[in-house]
Amino acid sequence: MRHPQRLSIPIHLERGLPEPLQDQLTAQLRRAIVRGQLAPRSRMPSTRTLSRVLGISRGVALAAFERLLAEGYITGRHGSGTYVCEQASAAPRAAASGETLLDLRLDRPSTQGFPLAAWRAAWRRAGLHRPPLGGLPATGLPALRAAIAAHLRHVRGLELDGHEVIVTPGIADALRLILRAQGGSDPVIALEDPAPPKLRAALSRLGTVLPLPADGSGARTDRIPAACDVVVGLPERGDPLGTRLPLERRHTLTRWARDSGGLVLEPAFDGLFAEAPEPLPALASLGDPWSTAMVGSFAEVLTPTLRLAFAVVPRRLAGEIEQFMPAGPSITSQLAVTDLLRSGCVAGRTAELSAQYAAKRALVRQALEAYPHTRLLGARTGAAATLLLPVSVPAASVAAALLARRVQVAELAAYHHPESQPGNGIVLSFGHLDGVSLRRALHALTRTLDEHRLARRTAA
């Protein structure tokens, strides 16, 4: 008689509880990953093993895996299995009291209301297609490129005359292709400052990054460094300050590109979840199409683990880029994303997340706008906000006090170029938190601010 395979971690599922079995399994696997019981890069038990050992249906195990995939804890490798993501257990372990650490440094989308049915259906339909005998087009399936162009027209009002959409395995690949084609082996890149640390790190691996100072209206277009090849701006939502580039500065930026022969590069979806802003044209639709480009992915809407991104490049660069394209995403991934775009799933998920984030931003404003000696920025767009602190209250002190309360935040200084004068503040990313966790984090923050003797505004 064959004995059932043993699991390396204890899992106990109880039937008859209000919490469904897939939710119980998801929570216990997530906890094992965060605590390091399932180490980064280790192989997960298969869904067949889980279903057999735990006495559950394979559908329950699949649902748990899909949730962990959407949350960024695990990733699939074609033909090899499912593995724990390298960064999934980077957060410190929970305190001895058992209180979970809330990491507000994570830039992940909410998993609440994730469209699992549409997600499964798209991948199932994609798996029915016969692989092309001649291989995949280097720049991506034409149907996917057309679907991305249609989506950009819908969400950004962008008509891609003079541009080409190119599909890549990730944002880093899209950046590398554009920068190599524009600036050679060591391009000089002016990056809006402050900017997300991951973006600065990715660009620094590809060229020399110089700071482009930003103020309350976004990038200072009158201070573009001399002799740079590319300017990378964040016109719709300057992360982490939440600024929006005025029309006059947008024109100045595109004029610089036209007159200098440089290139302006912008994210495709950096203002995706704004509260009904007045429409401003994308940089790619303002200037000469020969001098503007975009990069984007669907990480903010679907899942960061989806290995598929895109670049919108001038046609003058498209031919050169095609010569050194990396191996693209699998045909199954490309077909599934095409399906999700065409069916309206991506647009619907965007609307759902916009509503979720608006409610969370209201909680953040309610808690933090009561402190007159601080300044809350970016709390009307996106899923993050920045709290500027007075010089008498160092951001490092606030961050350390919050960590003692099991809440982890980023310091604004981490978003600045090393040669820039850093701001004194903390950055809160809250899109991935549920309402209960967000309230707990805000309660810890207000207690910390009170302990630092920051007076609250009182009612008249």
From TrEMBL:
<dbReference type="InterPro" id="IPR051446">
    <property type="entry name" value="HTH_trans_reg/aminotransferase"/>
</dbReference>
<dbReference type="InterPro" id="IPR036388">
    <property type="entry name" value="WH-like_DNA-bd_sf"/>
</dbReference>
<keyword id="KW-0804">Transcription</keyword>
<protein>
    <submittedName>
        <fullName>Pyridoxine biosynthesis transcriptional regulator PdxR</fullName>
    </submittedName>
</protein>
<keyword id="KW-0805">Transcription regulation</keyword>
<dbReference type="InterPro" id="IPR000524">
    <property type="entry name" value="Tscrpt_reg_HTH_GntR"/>
</dbReference>
<keyword id="KW-0238">DNA-binding</keyword>
<keyword id="KW-0663">Pyridoxal phosphate</keyword>
<dbReference type="InterPro" id="IPR015424">
    <property type="entry name" value="PyrdxlP-dep_Trfase"/>
</dbReference>
<dbReference type="InterPro" id="IPR036390">
    <property type="entry name" value="WH_DNA-bd_sf"/>
</dbReference>
<dbReference type="Pfam" id="PF00392">
    <property type="entry name" value="GntR"/>
</dbReference>
<comment type="similarity">
    <text>In the C-terminal section; belongs to the class-I pyridoxal-phosphate-dependent aminotransferase family.</text>
</comment>
<dbReference type="InterPro" id="IPR015421">
    <property type="entry name" value="PyrdxlP-dep_Trfase_major"/>
</dbReference>
<feature type="domain" description="HTH gntR-type">
    <location>
        <begin position="19"/>
        <end position="87"/>
    </location>
</feature>
